[in-house]
Design goal:
This protein is an alpha+beta fold. Strands 1, 3, 4, 7, 8 and 10 form a 6-stranded antiparallel beta sheet that branches. Helix 1 packs antiparallel against helix 2.
Length: 200
């Protein structure tokens, strides 16, 4: 009589390892990748005028309530009001600023930012950002700008999801195959018992 009870229980371990890896490894990777993205954003202190260098693409500007520039630390509160900004090309033509299509924010290390406007750049070059308070003078704050900050998170999340499904799928398949093999084994045992009873 065959004693095969299906796949080894070690496949359960493999499935659990895959699932746990999908849960924890991407979190570390995402955190490191996001930290690098955030620290690499172009930023400047406003009100005032500052030059940014942009390549063609879509960009988001963030008000950083917690930031650091040139060794100076900034902690300026969660909300921002009364500040108006404009962006012009090196030839003086204006770039249209739009409200964010979806609110986005980050809080990593020494930086915490929230999206305040979006814009699209058609040509590579130097752009001047000019921000000023309406009416009374306000506090000095930091604005950062960059592209692909949130979209860079999509691929790792998708990969993590697929690995997680693979781990759960492995556990389910092993469970089903072992149950089938066990039923078949029990069926063989019953047949042998019945055959023995007939002989006796």
């Amino acid at each position: 009589m065959s004693t095969n009870v299906g796949p080894s229980r070690w496949w359960y371990v493999a499935g659990v390892i895959l699932w746990l890896g999908a849960c924890f490894t991407p979190a570390v990777t995402l955190s490191r990748g996001m930290q690098e993205k955030v620290s690499g954003l172009q930023r400047a202190v406003f009100p005032g005028q500052h030059q940014f260098d942009f390549a063609p693409g879509k960009y988001t500007a963030f008000y950083e309530s917690r930031s650091a520039i040139g060794g100076a630390l900034y902690a300026t509160g969660a909300s921002l009001s009364g500040l108006s900004c404009g962006l012009t090309r090196d030839d003086g033509s204006a770039v249209k600023l739009k409200s964010p299509t979806a609110a986005s924010s980050y809080s990593l290390g020494g930086y915490a930012g929230a999206s305040i406007f979006q814009f699209e750049v058609a040509t590579k070059g130097a752009y001047r950002m000019d921000c000023a308070y309406d009416g009374d003078k306000g506090q000095r704050i930091v604005i950062s700008a960059g592209s692909g900050l949130m979209s860079s998170l999509v691929a790792p999340i998708i990969v993590a999801g697929l690995i997680s499904l693979l781990g759960l799928g492995t556990i389910i398949v092993v469970r089903v195959k072992r149950k089938r093999a066990l039923r078949a084994l029990l069926g063989q045992g019953n047949e042998l018992h019945a055959h023995a009873m007939v002989k006796s």
